[in-house]
Amino acid sequence: MTSVLVIDDEPAIVSLLALCLEPLSVELLHATGLAGALELARRQRVGLVLLDLALGDEDGVDLLPRLRGEPGLADVPIVAFSAHHSRRREAIEHGADSFLARPFAWADLRSTVEAHLLPTDDH
To answer: Which of 22, 45, 55, 103 is 20 to 30 A off residue 12, Cα-Cα?
Structure first.
């Protein structure tokens, strides 16, 4: 089973993500910030990261280079999300593979996650 690491400090959002992704049969790991995310990634293989850019004391954009610098996460797709559409470019420039604006449609979230988790034929 593929693990999806959610980095978000809002329990309600994490619960909604879990409900939305349940049909994909992925294991959801949850961290509220960088320290917890790195600890989880060091203990368990992660196939995808979903990163909220608004994390209380931490800015998700600032975390992107640190996540990319972690050996277990360097090549893992990262999907950033924010209620501020204007943060898309900033997130991509700092290492996110994709960006979703909140609120997002469940179908959009699911298809984005599937696109990053499914192997491609160009290898």
So the answer is: 45
Residue 49 lies in a domain: yes
User: What's the rounded Cα separation, in Å, for the pair 68 and 37?
Assistant: 12
Contact (CB, 8 A) for 117 and 48? yes
Which residue segment(s) compose the domain that 110 sits in? 3-116
**Residue 16 CA to chain centroid, in angstroms?**
14
Q: What is the CATH number of the domain that holds 57?
A: 3.40.50.2300
The total of structural domains in the chain comes to: 1
